[in-house]
Every structure is written in structure tokens, then in C-alpha cells.
What we know:
Chain A contains no helices and nine strands. Chain A is mostly beta strands. A five-stranded mixed sheet of chain A has the order 1-9-8-3-4, with no helix packed on it. Chain A has a four-stranded antiparallel sheet with strand order 2-7-6-5, with no helix packed on it.
Amino acid sequence: DAKTTQPNSMESNEEEPVHLPCNHSTISGTDYIHWYRQLPSQGPEYVIHGLTSNVNNRMASLAIAEDRKSSTLILHRATLRDAAVYYCILRDSNYKLSFGAGTTVTVRA
Amino acid sequence: DVKVTQSSRYLVKRTGEKVFLECVQDMDHENMFWYRQDPGLGLRLIYFSYDVKMKEKGDIPEGYSVSREKKERFSLILESASTNQTSMYLCASSPQQGRNTEAFFGQGTRLTVV
């Protein structure tokens, strides 16, 4: 599986945007870029995914570099509820879904 | 509301016991997964299944087996529980075209083996 690299932690202030980077220099042409997050004491939940183009949904935006070797998850206005571990995952198979260490996001009130 | 349900939130078992962790999804998904999550190690894939009676080993299958007799149910079996299997266990499901779809997770079962 292609690997991803994320910072261990990031801090943000409430109501401010959060930009979470992810490097995936060995990505292949058929890999989808997925983001999940895990709130304390809960199972992971889906955030967003994309292949080549930038994507937006009600939770976040995903900006994908033109060469696809990196991507950024954007939370437009962080709330206290967004404090979680965020995982960037490359999905090269319809079956396997493998998680890395993720980025722990702290939101200051 | 879509749902993945794990049978127990907390479970305490004795060393050597046979343990069954059950997971049920109501979304008619083909793919189902079992993970364990430990501090500092993140989520690690134990087994996954892409169809009824089909299974594939994940990254850490040793000490575990699985069963999928019906599409909606995926069971994780610890044949002889050991203390190093104390962990949070998470089940997930996703549609067949998993690469381009989202996966749904249960709330987890915290298993303690004493």
C-alpha cells in the first residue's frame, strides 16, 4: 500500500480555518485519497474523499495537488467538536482500508 | 440512518476463553472489516470480508479468526483469549466499490482479558 505522512498534531482556535496536510509521494494513478476522523471514544467517521479534483462537502474541503503527491483537508471554521484524530488514507483497493497514525487536532476556545 | 452495530460496548473475559465479537450492518454492504486499536499503534486491520463466506487476512490476523455466514453479520473470534488481546475492537462496512465510497464504523467494543 502507498504510504501517507501527516504531522502528529495541530492546534487551532475556534472559528478559524484548519489546514491539515498529507503527503503521499508514492500515490498511484488509481488511488483515491480518503479522510476520516475519530472523535474521542468513538469509531472513525468518514469526512471526504477525492481522486484528482478538489472536493467540497458539508464537513470540509479537500484540495489535491496537481501532481497528486500531496493533499490538504480544510475545515473552514473549526469548532470544539472538530477536535479529533484525522486520518489521511490512500485507497488502492475496493477491499482494504488501512489507517496510519493520523493528526491530532486540538481546538482552543 | 445507516448503522453498524457491535454487540457489546464493554467486555471482560478470562484468559483461555473463546470470545465472539459480533458486528451487524443494515446497509447491504459487501465489504466488512475488523480492526483493533491500541494507544500509539493506531488502527490495525485484522481481517476483512468481501462477500458471504469470503475472508482475507489483514495486517495482524494471528490469534484471530472470522466468520461471515450472512451478508449483514461479521464475527470476530478469539479462539483462546490472551491478555495481549486486550484492546478496542472496531468493525466497519463499505459497499463493493470501496475505493470510491465511504466506510461506516461501529462504536467499538473495549475488550479486557484478565
